[in-house]
Amino acid sequence: MIQVVVVDDQEMVRAGFRALLAAEPDLEVVGQAADGAEAVEIARRLAPDVILMDVRMPVLDGLAATRRILGEWTSGQAPRVIMLTTFDLDEYVYDALRAGASGFLLKHSPPGELAAAVRVVAAGDALLAPSITRRLVEDFARVQPVLPTTSGELTPRETEVLKLIARGHSNREIAAGLTLAEQTVKTHVSRILAKLNLRDRAQAVVHAYESGLVHPGPRR
């Protein structure tokens, strides 16, 4: 069972998400919170696999709560955080990706996407498939200063894979484009994350843009 905590300041939203997840045989909602401060306490007490975290809440917003939660755990043990937002371009969500959240989901997404998103991040991947995620990162990367890069630690092939990750390509697409086995691509991705001390693909995308390795532009 994948254990989930739902965090949102609207009771009806929490109830709706709880009902949708409860209908799935492999998902269990073990707790819920109405603000970020409650979320931090519940995460400490229950250690869930995944946290659905609203962005804008009273007492402590979702961004601050995410930073606190992920800052208290080692990367291999920390809950995965999915940010919930009403807006497709939200600076708080971009900052949350930088803080270590595994991606974000729009509240008006189709019901089936919620359970799928929980499974994706619980498996250790990131919610980067929707084109909106890449657009969010690109839009805010345009106004962020380029940071000193540590991508020089990567091999030329790993650098090539990182660029394709940042462009929103899946492992299967990368494998096809570079004529590699998909398992080989997975190995490259694991090494990239380890060398750059990144939590997952979401942070890899942010790193690629902020380091200047990739620049905003059309997907290639």
UniProtKB/TrEMBL annotation:
InterPro entries: CheY-like_superfamily, NreC/VraR/RcsB-like_REC, Sig_transdc_resp-reg_C-effctor, Sig_transdc_resp-reg_receiver, Tscrpt_reg_LuxR_C, WalR-like. The keyword S-adenosyl-L-methionine does not apply. It comes from the Bacteria. Residues 3-122 form the Response regulatory domain. One of its GO terms (molecular function) is DNA binding. SMART domains: HTH_LUXR (SM00421), REC (SM00448). This is LuxR family two component transcriptional regulator. It comes from Kribbella amoyensis.
